[in-house]
Amino acid sequence: MSQTQDQNAGLEASRRGPRGARQQLAYLFVAVALREAARGGVMRRQAMASLTAQDRAAMRTAVEGQFLVPRTEGGREQAADQLRIALMWRDTSSVAARLVEDLVADYRVEEGLIIDVEAGTVDVDPAFDAPAQQKRRALTVQHNHHLEAVFTALTLLRRSSESLPTGVESALVVPASRAKRVALTARLRELGVGESDSKTAVFVLAYLSGETADLDYLVEAPTLIDPGEEIKPVVADALADLIRQVDTPALDPDRWTALTGLLSPDDRELADTTRTATLTGTRLQPIPPWTDLNVDRRALSRRVREYRDQLRTAVSFGATVAASPHIDDRDWEMVQGHVAAMLSSRSWIEKDLAHSGLLGIEDTRLRHVMDLFDAGDIRADRLLFVSELALRETDLSLLNGRAERIATTGAAAITNALDSLTAPENRTAATARPATLDQESLTWQLSAIANGHPSSAQISAELTGEISKLLTESRASETTATVITSETKAWLQQADGQGQQIVASSTAWSMRITEVCAARDTASIRFAGRELGSPPAQASASVDHHAGSLIVAALPTATHRTAPTSIDADIDGRTSTDPGVEAEAQL
User: Fold this and answer.
1) What is the pLDDT of residue 145?
2) Left if phi > 0, otherwise alpha if psi is -120 to 50, otherwise beta: which for 228?
3) Does 93 share its domain with 105?
4) Local confidence band at 161 (pLDDT 50, 70, 90 cut-offs)
5) Same domain as 63, residue 31
6) For residue range 274-312, what is the model confidence (pLDDT) as tens digits?
7) Do 180 and 205 have their domain in common?
8) CA 93/CA 57 separation, integer angstroms
9) 115: which strand partners?
10) Shortest CA distance to 87 belongs to which of 44, 28, 24?
11) Looking at the domain assignment, is residue 40 inside a domain?
């Protein structure tokens, strides 16, 4: 029997498939570790045979040193990778052998997996209730996050005043809804906490606990980070692209002005000087080291979402591997490549966390998200960061998601109504439906309207005209025509309302960020330190929204939150965030 057949036969012994995301992931990681260890062990022994005894001992000592260092970072992929390496060395290293025993025991107790290292198989303990265990872990993790949120908010309030008013400590509880946040803010004000301090403390409670489903970012989020600092990595990348002579905002004067409009006057002058020197060929000074000193929150957000998507795919792989008695080498290579990519993604996120320059609360929240991933709760938190542009992007993604849901649902409803024209009782004239009225085209048109496209009114009028023409040519009955017209009108109105809301909110966000930059340039606002060390009272700005933004062109279309409705079930609820809905800043 070939090695592949032997390993597949071992997998076939698993009669009970893993249940729940956490156990399915663990099953996949262990199955891959066992397979790779079998192959890697053979290659290791062949390589070791050509070494001297001294070299073999040195290599074994180096590997054992890795095992003896406590693992302080990384997810459950790293634990499985340790199992893989330990399995390869257990025949010549007592340290590796003990680690294998410990990991096998841990997987049995923590994951309900029965690992037979001799046979190279993994099975599921029938007495282990994986879904219940996953739920308990997630609740424990969430409880710990709530405790940390309260502690952080309390620390901020203590830091902002010499003495904490009586009753504040007992009043600080995680608010799970907008109404509770309003009530808590009012209670803190009654106890003598300042307005800005109250706003910041309540926001920190919601943010660190993950209770942000109905958070109005534009109204409830304080200003904690200088937009100029936030945009610096993007500006530096644009300058680097200019040197490489690739497409970049630095090539277009208007795009460059919009991009650098967020910088402080001194930073803008430095960026302009560097750009001019590069364009003229003089290159008198290097690119500012902004990518080294400032985190690119958009890139880190994208990396976390990619890792989340990798986890979701791995969950399905785990179920497939457990259910498939025979998996060919090509499929195994795909699975192993996916797990290797996950290891790399998690490693990069850990490195970013170690050297990111995030605010303390942002670092904490991102670690919370990783905790939830490891507990089997595979949802990227919609609000990862609290910078101005990140808040705006998050708001945008939620409302754009709602717009897409309106478009998809509305197009299906209108298509269903139009289908009634082909029913025998309604068919009085053979009229082909134009391509502009197929479901895909209807989705596109409703999406444009719901996202506030400048030509929304024209698109709506043309769609209404097309349907009216079709009804006339089809000689539809009055009842059928009324149903189709009413359905179309209702969805057009809903899409138009959403589009108007997006446009209005876009202006409001642009005004807020413009005002913050202006306040920064006049030194009338102080931002939080990286550990969120500045008193909350100094970390907030009073922003009035009015027309005339200087940087509207630098920002993507923004959105504003509304109370969730049935159309928002998968977007504004706490269940998931569709990666296709999450918009990127177009800077």
Assistant:
1) 93
2) alpha
3) yes
4) confident
5) yes
6) 888 888 876 666 777 777 667 788 889 999 999 999 999
7) yes
8) 10
9) 122
10) 44
11) yes
Same domain, 522 and 430: yes
Tell me: the pLDDT tens digits for 472-493? 888 888 898 999 999 999 999 9
**Angstrom distance (rounded) from CA 96 to CA 83:** 9
Residues 6+ apart with CB under 8 A from 492: 446, 449, 460, 463, 464
**b/e per residue, 108-146, with b = 16+ CB within 10 A?**
eebbbbbbebeebbbbbbeebebeebbbebbeebbeebb
Residue 28 domain flag: yes
Which residues form the domain of 439? 388-581
- Burial degree of 425 (CB within 10 A; 0-12, 13-18, 19+): exposed
C-beta of residue 489 within 8 angstroms of C-beta of residue 545: no
Residue 309 has, within 13 A of its CA and on its CB side, a CA count of 11
- Whether residue 452 sits in one domain with residue 544: yes
E-assigned strands of 188-294?
A: none
Per-residue pLDDT at 5 exceeds 90:
no
pTM: 0.78
Residues 49 and 168 in one domain: no
- Say whether both 280 and 411 belong to one domain: no
For residue 543, give the 3-state DSSP assignment: coil
Show which of 129, 149, 184 is a domain's final residue. Answer: 129
- Which residue has better confidence, 70 or 135? 135
Helix axes 20-49, 297-323, angle to 10 degrees: 90
φ/ψ of residue 124, rounded to 5:
-110, 130
Can you name the residues that pair with 113 across neighbouring β-strands? 124
CB atoms inside a 10 Å sphere around CB 34? 23
577 and 380 Cβ atoms separated by less than 8 Å: yes
**314 part of a folded domain:** no
Residue for token pair 């919601």: 206
Q: Is the pLDDT score of 47 beyond 80? A: no
Rounded to 10 degrees, what is the CA torsion of 565, 571, 574, 578? 170
Final residue belonging to a domain, choices 268, 293, 318: 293
The terminus-to-terminus CA distance of the chain in angstroms comes to: 58
Q: What phi-psi label fits residue 248: left (phi over 0), alpha (psi between -120 and 50 degrees) or beta? A: beta
Residue 329 confidence class, pLDDT cut points 50, 70, 90:
confident
Give yes or no: residues 455 and 489 share one domain.
yes
User: Distances from the Cα of 497 to the Cαs of 368, 447, 450, 583, in angstroms?
Assistant: 36, 12, 7, 20
- Count the residues in the chain: 587
Name the domain count of the chain. Answer: 4
Helix or strand or coil: residue 415?
helix
